[in-house]
TrEMBL record:
Keywords: 4Fe-4S, Electron transport, Iron, Iron-sulfur, Metal-binding, Repeat, Transport. Residues 24-52, 53-84, 127-156 form the 4Fe-4S ferredoxin-type domain. InterPro entries: 4Fe4S_Fe-S-bd, 4Fe4S_Fe_S_CS, Fe-S_Ferredoxin, NapF. Pfam families: Fer4_7 (PF12838). GO terms for molecular function: 4 iron, 4 sulfur cluster binding; metal ion binding. This is Ferredoxin-type protein NapF.
């Protein structure tokens, strides 16, 4: 079943799903994951799903709150996870962002828990967004709230585990 936001339903849009790996991974899941689905069943925000036998995160409707439940419940947590629950990716604003196209919108900023998305004043038009990489946790809350799917994820420089498309 595909869930639609009210805005998407009224506009006839279905959001594109953005998939990535759970936070804090130090090794690819395909090497060890037993597909037990414990992380899927215990995620309080229900953003973990199985894709081709690998647990992935879907930020279409919610974000990661870094509760650590996926790490606690995983039988291989000592192999998969680092001490720090962090993502190897960050948010990135795409060119089809409403604010970049002269339409006032700051929904991504309004839903960012770390204020990593900031808007710069611009003469004669809406303010332009920018992502402060050091502040962005990669939680994905901004992604599901963007009405035009203009926020994607990109791999942080120096990251040791790549995000999945």
């Amino acid at each position: 079943m595909t869930l639609l936001s009210r805005r998407a339903l009224l506009r006839g849009q279905i959001k594109q799903k953005v998939h990535t790996l759970p936070p804090g991974l130090i090794r690819p899941l395909a090497e060890i994951c037993e597909q037990c689905r414990a992380c899927v069943d215990h995620c309080p925000t229900s953003i973990i799903s199985m894709q081709s036998g690998i647990p992935t995160l879907d930020f279409s409707f919610d974000g990661c709150n870094f509760c650590g439940r996926c790490r606690e419940i995983c039988p291989h947590a000592d192999v998969f996870f680092d001490d720090d629950l962090a993502f190897s990716h960050k948010a990135q604003v795409q060119s089809h962002c409403l604010a970049l196209n002269s339409v006032e919108c700051q929904l991504c900023r309004d839903h960012c828990p770390t204020d990593a998305i900031r808007f710069r004043p611009r003469a004669g038009g809406p303010w332009h967004p920018s992502v402060v990489e050091d502040s962005c946790t990669g939680c994905g809350l901004c992604i599901g709230h963007c009405p035009t799917n203009a926020i994607s994820i990109s791999v942080r420089s120096g990251s040791h585990v790549d995000a999945q498309p």
